[in-house]
Amino acid sequence: MTANSEEQxxxxxxxxxxxxxxxxxxxxxENGTPVAYESDNKYYDPEYVATAAAVISGAVSSxxxxxxxxxxxxxxxxxxxxxxxxxxQYKKQQKxxxxxxxxxxxxxxxxxxxxxxxxxx
Amino acid sequence: MVDTVVTLxxxxxxxxxxxxxxxxxxxxxxxxxxxxxxxxxxxxSEALPPKTGGDAETKPTGPxxxxxxxxxxxxASAIGAKxxxxxxxxGIPIESYNVREGRGISVPLAEFVSTMRKLSPDFDSIVSGDxxxxxxxxxxKVGDIExxxxxxxxxxxxxxxxxxxxxxxxxxxxxxxxxx
Lengths: 121, 180
Prior knowledge:
Distance between the termini of chain A: 26 Å
CATH class of the largest domain in chain B: Alpha Beta
Structural class of chain A: alpha+beta
Number of domains of chain A: 1
Number of domains of chain B: 2
Order of helices and strands of chain A: HEEHEEEH
Number of helices of chain B: 5
Strand content of chain B: 15-25%
Order of helices and strands of chain B: HHEEHEEHEEEH
Oligomer: heterodimer
Mean pLDDT of chain A: 91
Largest interface: A-B, 15 and 16 residues
Strand content of chain A: 25-35%
Helix content of chain A: 25-40%
Strand order of the largest sheet of chain A: 2-1-5-4-3
Radius of gyration of chain A: 13 Å
CATH architecture of the largest domain in chain B: 2-Layer Sandwich
Largest sheet of chain A: 5 strands, antiparallel
């Protein structure tokens, strides 16, 4: 993993500020390479998570192209156990994405506010 | 002699029962969370700036620097609100204190704000009576999300609506991990 201090600082800040609502957060490149990663759960493999997230974001981007849509702000995947996987474009030019995996009962209002505050406009 | 002793005992028992009843009622009214919040709020309220007349803008600072609230409960107690909820323009609750069914309150409030803005696009806040019992106000915009707050007090709040908004802004900044 090629951890950049700015990206690593961001994922750490997001997780620490989420009051326990975020279990895992990561920044990855378009091709599924993890750039920064933060999680207390040792069972998550950043490589696998990054690959899965890249596949999802790639599929959504293809659908957007088919629909002639300008783009998307966030992809939200509701997992069966109540957790949510949120994918947002982080830096468009560098084609980086931010992924958050929430806990089973997340405070989505606060998480979205955090992302809005800290992600570049 | 025996009669006197019996009378005294009855009096003591009655006194003890009244005492217990009062203690029970007091214990029932305040949850441990509220009590802790109120204790901390008391400390913070000592650090609040003295009230100034007129409409001068109030900075959320005390004699020893900015006033900080460790929780929304503390802030609620400091401003004298019994119920406090933060929510966004879509009616999604962000945080609340002493509010059950947050979404059941925030959704109609967001609809109310939206309706008011159709009638008056610059609608920003609404306060009841002298502005010290119920405050519904826009706090600030964070990116595309606008944060609103509803504060409801049992009686007069300790601060004016503008001051309450400043404290909520400061609390939000702290919660979001903004760098100074």
